[in-house]
Amino acid sequence: MKKVVLPVVIILALAFFVKAQLGKYQEGYKQNVEGRSYNFSTLEAIDNERTKLIESVSPGVATVFTTQEITVNNPFFDMPFGDFFGIPNTPQFKQKRQGLGSAFIVDVDYNKKVVYLLTNNHVVENAKDIQVQFKNKMILKAKVVGGDKLSDVAVLEVPFKKGIEDFASKNVLKLGDSDQLKVGSTVIAIGAPLGLSDTVTIGIVSAKNRQIEDRPGEGFIQTDAAINPGNSGGPLINVRGEVVGINTAIIAGAQGLGFAVPINQAKWVMEQILKYGKVKRSKIGVIIQPLTADLAEHFGVNEGALVSSVQPGGPADRAGIKAGDIIVEVNGKKISDISDLQNQVMKNPPGSKLKIKVIRDGKELTFDVITVPLESDETASTEESGQATNIENTIGLIVKDITPDLIKRYGLPKVDYGVLVYAVKEGSVAEEAGLQAGDIILSVNKKPVKSSAEFWQIINKAKSEKQDSVLLYIQRGDNRIYTTLSLR
Q1: Cα angle 427-432-436, degrees, rounded to a multiple of 5
Q2: Cβ-contact 72, 89 below 8 angstroms
Q3: CB of 234 closer than 8 Å to CB of 61
């Protein structure tokens, strides 16, 4: 009998041991599940906060519908069946084109009785009709207060109608500080890509101060938040619900590459537009180039902007700045590269006195430079500048000052002076004259041309003197040719 009891005792002991271990395992499993449950709660809390943030911001975002009138070449001109199909029997005819973009509410002015919105300039440029649809489904006609091509920022106003002021005043978006953004910060883009209103995408700041061609000094925010056509003009917000940028550009065919105008830049542009009706920028009359590692070693300076040439008689020339100088400071602010210099100079109104520190032959020198308008030569008036812009559109020609960067980028021939034909509009008088992108205009009416501002001054003068055309001398590759440009 004793021999039987002993195995039973052992079996019972083992059973209790197994049960105890199983209990510990179950308790541990329970704690593990609870731990994971706690993590789920944290994620749910983050998710809830994010949705609340978007719900609070999205009513301040609007969809912009535009109608533009464009000139179209008629492929059926002078064909007998043209009119039969309803096509005007003319070489060209006007055609309406519908556009789409986004905007967001930034202010409500009860004195002027208007609601102000920010958007991209390219969304509303040359629009004959602009309609803004708000989140409450109200659609109202808008007017462009002013637009700026360089930064791609425009200000819209919508008059008080149908109680829109009450809705707008509750949904004005807070503008943040884009200078505080860090690479890796979470950002959210809101807009109407491809007409899909209230679309939200999320990503991070991929880079800051990205340079885009033809936007000197305008450093953009790069983000991987999905941005598509129709997003343009919508806000890029941070985790506090503050607008830190205006979604403005994508690179066709690229994945996860979007760009936004920093809101600090947009705020400055908006202030200029509301104050002057346009943006006033300055220049000092220098051509600058990056200070590469090789150049830095040669000049003995690690940071700054190298002056490659100085405009004769311009502000920098009059102050005493010379080619070979390295600009390291403007009004006490350090200049690390070209974009720093462009920003510090351009954001001052014309006529400002700037203290510019340079390094010349290892010595520090400081000059007082009086700025002039960026968009014209120092001798040109604001009215003349406006005329230049108008005639540029009429002629269908864009010219640029020749810089070392353009020479390198396009393999331009070496010339002592001239301006680069950057673009020629199809069907324009410039195209009829035989001008091509890449041509270098050396002279107009046998007068050497040394800057784009000087080129348009000569053209304007000829037009004011009722000349029918001007004589152009052009460098095209290794050849030089004459052509006439009609001013009629």
Answers
A1: 90
A2: no
A3: yes
Nearest Cα neighbor of 239 from 83, 56, 104, 369 is: 56
d(C-alpha 319, C-alpha 315), whole Å:
6
pTM (predicted TM-score): 0.64
Q: Which of 102, 178, 232, 339 is catalytic?
A: 232
What is the C-alpha to C-alpha distance for residues 103 and 463, in angstroms, rounded to an integer? 40
d(CA 206, CA 309): 35
Catalytic residue check, 152: yes
DSSP letters for 290-315: E--HHHHHHHT-SSSEEEEEE-TTSH
Is 122 an active-site residue?
A: yes
Closest by Cα among 404, 341, 349 to 373: 349
- Tens-digit pLDDT profile for the chain (488 aa)? 445 555 655 665 566 665 665 555 555 544 454 445 555 688 888 888 889 999 999 999 999 999 977 666 655 555 555 454 555 666 565 677 788 999 999 999 999 999 999 999 989 988 889 999 999 999 999 999 999 988 899 999 999 999 999 999 999 999 999 989 999 999 999 998 777 888 899 999 999 988 776 565 568 899 998 888 788 899 999 999 999 999 987 666 667 788 999 999 999 999 999 988 888 888 998 988 888 888 888 888 989 999 888 888 889 999 999 988 999 999 999 998 888 888 889 888 888 899 999 999 999 999 999 998 886 433 333 333 334 445 566 788 888 888 877 777 777 888 888 999 887 877 788 888 899 888 999 999 889 998 888 898 888 888 888 888 898 999 988 888 888 898 87
Report yes or no: 412 and 440 within 8 Å, Cβ to Cβ: yes
What residues have CB less than 8 Å from 250, skipping those under 6 apart? Answer: 227, 228, 229, 257, 258, 259
Q: Which of 122, 337, 352, 469 is catalytic?
A: 122
DSSP letter, residue 173: P
C-alpha to C-alpha distances, 345 to 61, 286, 333, 350, 353, nearest whole angstrom: 33, 11, 11, 10, 10
Kindly give, in sequence order, each residue whose CB lies less than 8 Å from that of residue 288, ignoring residues fewer than 6 positions away: 305, 306, 307, 308, 327, 338, 341
| Terminal Cα-to-Cα distance of the chain (whole angstroms) | 128
Render the burial of 11-34: b for 16+ CB within 10 Å, e for the rest: eeeeeeeeeeeeeeeeeeeeeeee
Q: Exactly one of 152, 325, 377, 439 is catalytic; name it.
A: 152
